[in-house]
């Protein structure tokens, strides 16, 4: 495809790399919580003020964790105050979304290719239709987009007997465009919009906005004019109820704790509510071996043990068995987490280490629940208000995601397949996870700029950038995987992006093939530990070696991204590095590496109004203090996919940095033929792999130990293992 400033060499894809191990293509694992959107959670939950990175066994964490690991039969109210039973993923189904029941549902496929909701119960025709149309879904791995025309779609198909006619103009769409005329309020029957559940990812400003409905008469009929206000009022009420329920829970927990002190500390309710079950005993190493040999414990035992370990770790001196160490409890807990949630031991431990004990359980729980379905309005084709109106008319229950985006809509329910509406096919929106709006918001490309999207397929972020640039300037949308550039191209066409040049190079070939960009987005290939709810295969198929190789690749790519930026850009000179992974190796460690190797770059604020600070130290490693400017997003905190974002400003190289450059000359970007593939030998020539040596050595030692071999003595300082 042609584009302004496009060298002719880029009109055809020049890369013939092997497809990388791309996470969303592995869809063999079942999803236990499929079909549920997670309950809304407040932005920056109670953990927000906590310093992460330390294994703090706080009582608060333990209580959160105790809520997550449910007793098999005990009913615990959820925070929405509905008193529904929360259930473990292995023994019972998850709490269902109340919206599930009444209406038929259509398949919704997110841009990541994951299905958001369950199939329409008794609408086979819709299902069949949706199946064929979802092939072109934004981030699906299917290469082919829908190839028919709008005429091929039966526009009436999506209409159910009771189409929703609610208007969209009463939502807060002000941010869409200041030119929009004020639509006069019109009368309609009560829209189902008013019944929608609480918003996801509410910002502080969202929460405070609920106050303006004070004093309104609840009995007055619902009109288009008052619908949004009433809805906010309902949300406020729900929040108050949730707070009340949470207080109740805490009171219960406090009472239980007091009981603990009075009665035998180890007395425990059994599955039937009897108080006569045996006191908890942490298995010894021998007992664990025996347990393994006999096929492992039953799920109730595992649940109880996890709960007890969390309790013990929260007040270790009082609750732990005499003579047992903290690390014994942690080892048992991690082993149980791995078996309960279905992770390999290595990954369970790696993820567990990211959080305080109680919060870790929340993270694992959140990975069992699908994230909300969200779409991004393509402002090249429509306005959010108009899109919302069109979709509401088709029976889609939606609302703006939050104040932080003026193009996002959260879909609560739909009687039509959201990936196959006429509006979708006409490119009015992209099915896109809320988290993937963030890197583009952070990069904030401006009209007429020259931008590189280094790893861009299938184009969710490229097309978002094209819209922000109002189809001006040029975006080089690159992806090493040629097959994936097909869906990228399809999306670029569908969304009407005219300033995009699609190309297929290994990102490590930049800036040799092309440089001088105002801005670069590196949405790097990663392990996908932030999107486990979409792709459960990550739980078992990621090994230590994968993380080492990925981290290498990411470090190589980030240097190339930096070197592709024009430091003298009048408008830009920025890079955003992002991953959908939560591991430190793929995030802070990569960013810190870039800061060390390229003294002419510095981290700057992402401009995002939420997200947790990146780690400045982690398990014995200290990063540059400015790494706290990076942002982490978590499913259990933000109700989004796990994500990481860093924004850099590239400065001109000074004399001092020039000498630095000479020193690092051997690290000039190199042409590397291997795409990331855990089994391929990655050519690291010229890349500074020295610093990874201790890790590689330690990994080798571990592998040998696991095989019962005696590892050679350590030759280098190895980062301290588990605290
Ligand atoms: C996280 S996905 C990108 C998603 C995309 N930015 C979007 O928003 O739709 C990572 C991409 O990196 C590509 N990739 C893997 N190795 C690469 C390399 N060495 N150079 C460039 N792209 C690479 C993969 O093919 C994959 O499409």
Automatic annotation (TrEMBL):
Compartments reported by the entry: Nucleus, Nucleolus
Any one GO CC term of the record: nucleolus
Region (Disordered), start-end ranges: 22-122, 134-277, 656-676, 701-723
UniProt xrefs under PROSITE patterns: NOL1_NOP2_SUN (PS01153), SAM_MT_RSMB_NOP (PS51686)
Ranges where the SAM-dependent MTase RsmB/NOP-type domain occurs: 363-651
Keyword Disulfide bond: no
Ranges of compositional bias, category Acidic residues: 109-122, 139-162, 171-182, 209-219, 257-272
Skewed-composition ranges (Basic and acidic residues): 75-88, 232-242, 656-669
Residues noted as binding S-adenosyl-L-methionine in the record, renumbered to the chain: 455-461, 479, 506, 523
A Pfam family assignment: RsmF-B_ferredox
MF-aspect GO terms: RNA binding; rRNA (cytosine-C5-)-methyltransferase activity
Cited InterPro entries: MeTrfase_RsmB-F_NOP2_cat, MeTrfase_RsmB-F_NOP2_dom, Nop2p, RCMT, RCMT_NOP2, RsmB-like_ferredoxin, RsmB/NOL1/NOP2-like_CS, SAM-dependent_MTases_sf
Keywords: Methyltransferase, Nucleus, Ribosome biogenesis, RNA-binding, S-adenosyl-L-methionine, Transferase
Iron-sulfur found in the keyword field: no
GO process terms (BP): maturation of LSU-rRNA; rRNA base methylation
Active site: 580
UniProt family annotation: Belongs to the class I-like SAM-binding methyltransferase superfamily. RsmB/NOP family.
PANTHER family from the UniProt entry: 28S RRNA (CYTOSINE(4447)-C(5))-METHYLTRANSFERASE-RELATED, NOP2 YEAST -RELATED NOL1/NOP2/FMU SUN DOMAIN-CONTAINING
Protein name: Nucleolar protein 2
Species assigned in the record: Cyclocybe aegerita
